[in-house]
């Protein structure tokens, strides 16, 4: 099998997605931390369109964009556990909810931070909590009591949403507010703890403290 | 095979994507035009999260989000021509470029319209043309002289980009500017003409005139 390299930045949830997918499939890879303030020739050449991490280098092939890479990993290494389910309708659901998290729900967390005025902020938080109820329902439906959106093990929705937990907690701490409210979404809150401790995740997802140090300018690398 | 219905709105490029995919696979379906100002119970129940078209109803299953539906169609009806290529790396490329068009390039066309001031508008147009050069290169690479991003026939990138051609032409006419510049991207311009005339597309993609009537308030349905 051709050599696998990952160009990343430790605090990027998009890089974390790829690391989790590689861990789930037990794929050995060389991790190459990137300095995003002074981009390497390797990064510029391997992702000339976006010039961003993550980039997966698999032999002579370069793949970028986190969800594209995660699906590539699932399709190229089909001997490990599956990340996407096998039935077309279940696959459609996985892609639908991943898009919901990425395009609709998580952007509200950023919107909360940049919104000014207590009333306007409260309205954004209300939308976040409405989305949380929807995600709780989806979790209960897909997990069927088995622990993950993917069932007995981490799957596509778990990776896409779970990778954002570190930054979600940072926003909770820095904004002094709760988003992942246990009283509203008890199953999802328990899932978040379970996901964070999963062996494919535990060494990958940065701690809230490290991320807060980063935004405060104390940390430039891990 | 279970009955197939599509909830749509004729002028939506996202609905057009699904129509093209269904046509490519020669799937018979019932098209149900929706009034988006007064949403039907069927729409609200079949897409409770977004309450938007397109929704594909396949037997007792509801699928929404255009790119999710197109991938579902490709996976659920695997006896027709393939929409995504078969090799994982080629599939990754198809998804990468579809995301580039959707998230990065086409939004510039909307940004051009809402940008004020000649100089600022010119800067946005410059970015659109830079993206066009990138898309021209991608087209030449993937088509290998065979006519489409997908090779001899329409594929995933063709559908995602091609569905936007109607609205691209509307913006060109209403803004008095050229985006799909033949001198910059001759291959892509020829592809656009070829795509529009393809039998799976010709009856689906609305004419520029009809779309302009719509935005001028003259037309509410086809």
From TrEMBL, chains A, B:
It is an enzyme of class 2 (transferase). It is found in: Cytoplasm, Cytosol. GO terms for molecular function: glutathione transferase activity. GO terms for biological process: glutathione metabolic process; toxin catabolic process. SUPFAM superfamilies: GST C-terminal domain-like (SSF47616), Thioredoxin-like (SSF52833). PANTHER family: GLUTATHIONE S-TRANSFERASE U19 (PTHR11260:SF781), GLUTATHIONE S-TRANSFERASE, GST, SUPERFAMILY, GST DOMAIN CONTAINING (PTHR11260). This is Glutathione S-transferase. It comes from Daucus carota subsp. sativus. The lineage of its organism: Eukaryota, Viridiplantae, Streptophyta, Embryophyta, Tracheophyta.
